[in-house]
Amino acid sequence: MACNSGQGCGSGEGCGTNSCASGSPCSREDDTVQLSSAVKPGICVKCKEEPTSEGFELCCTCLHTNLVSKFKTAVNKNSLVTPADHVLLALSGGPGSRVALEFLREIRLKAQTDLDASRDQGTRVFGLGVVFVDEAGAQSSSQNSEHNVEEISSIVVSENERPVPLHIVKLQDVFEDKDLRSSPGLDEDVGTRSPEERLQELLGNVEDVTGKEDLVSYLRMQVLQKVAKEHGYTKVVLGVCSSRIAARAIAATAKGQGFSFPADIQYVDSRWPVTVVLPLRDCLARELDVYCRLANLKTVSIENTSFSTDKSKSINEISQVFVSLLQEQNFSREYTITRTMGKLKPFDFNTPPVGPIEVALRRRKGIQTPTIAANEVPDLLCPICSAPLDTRDFMNGGAECSAELSNGGEVPFANDRDDVLGSSRFPDAFKSTCCPSCSFQIIPKKGIKAESMYKILPEVMKERAVTNIRDRQSWMRSRIQEYLLPDDQD
Ligand SMILES: [Zn+2]
Ligand SMILES: [Zn+2]
């Protein structure tokens, strides 16, 4: 078949498809597609032989070549997966993660075959596992849970002669952390409640529909991290594509997450204990969707966790609908949004790791490797959503902290973790270390709901707050230190 010739898409030039393999979309391609389609309707614009279906410009083989090429470029350019890695793919059942699973399997199989042929004892092939987070516990009616799990299992365990391990976990597993001690402020009755009841109560305390949805996604990431850590994985792969990023960008703008948003849309995100990577960042939802159907890849449509029948109450939902509408009219609009977002400055923890080969090359070329640790995690991340905190917010939250400092010099508050958690000031201190978006949309305004919320939060979030409070106090102390005279001076 002509489409296997390796021409066109792999070249990185305008290739007549939605996007070329260079990783960044080319704007001139839309015209190419329309022109070529005009010549031979119903025939693939790339190989010009195979028929197309579903009104898509490419045949299945060419679409595969195109998507794999973008996937591999993202992976190789940014060292997303190396032979030493043990990769955990978060499978949602949707086309993005489904395609990611297929490509990771393909690349792994090819690497294994090459390795077997070369009999090179020193090299290895990356490990692969799949995780599915069952979110049914977040809703009061969870009747589809079993069915969803069966469907997901059938995808992972299918035909393949080299099956990969599948971890099925529940959203409420975030409350079962063996590594962490239980908090002093935890009520007896909270401690005896089942994780599912705690999850329901936690979400019940959040009044805003968008806030509830976001909290579910933050809990999901914590559960993914938990599984990855417990099973020794070194990378977590998410099937987030360009279209999802575009919708998130609109939503994040509305939620006031402008400062931290660039952190969420890069190929690499190493602010987590296990680094998160997005190899499908340059693929469109439409391409992935069509490919799944053309290649007969089974997907499972699991309804999003929804907390209101009125979709207009969710910023996430409205943004999604808005971007889909733009997309229907002109599909390069999604790229316009993501390209604009791509101009935002990422954080240090978004820098791809520099491998030994790269270091050697740079040395030969006389390029200095930056001395700052590339993956240095910033001091403060929001305890709920893990967004990096703006120094200005940090300063605002520090007002209370400086009052503590001025009150007797020594900090009585953060010396001991249990003192911090047990303190009656913990709720206020906790809120002061959260990002503005979480403070506004998730944390209840004072009262019974607020109190109950702090008691019920997962330990991992409370621990982060304690770390933030400590770091802030030592930071404040260091700031004051500048203005103090040394001890030996009168
Ligand atoms: Zn073709
Ligand atoms: Zn936050």
TrEMBL record:
Keywords: Cytoplasm, tRNA processing. One of its GO terms (cellular component) is cytosol. GO terms for molecular function: nucleotidyltransferase activity; sulfurtransferase activity; tRNA binding. Pathway: tRNA modification; 5-methoxycarbonylmethyl-2-thiouridine-tRNA biosynthesis. The keyword tRNA processing applies. Gene3D superfamilies: HUPs (3.40.50.620). InterPro entries: CTU2, Rossmann-like_a/b/a_fold. It is found in: Cytoplasm. GO terms for biological process: protein urmylation; tRNA wobble position uridine thiolation. Plays a central role in 2-thiolation of mcm(5)S(2)U at tRNA wobble positions of tRNA(Lys), tRNA(Glu) and tRNA(Gln). May act by forming a heterodimer with NCS6/CTU1 that ligates sulfur from thiocarboxylated URM1 onto the uridine of tRNAs at wobble position. Belongs to the CTU2/NCS2 family. This is Cytoplasmic tRNA 2-thiolation protein 2. It comes from Ceratodon purpureus (Fire moss). The lineage of its organism: Eukaryota, Viridiplantae, Streptophyta, Embryophyta, Bryophyta.
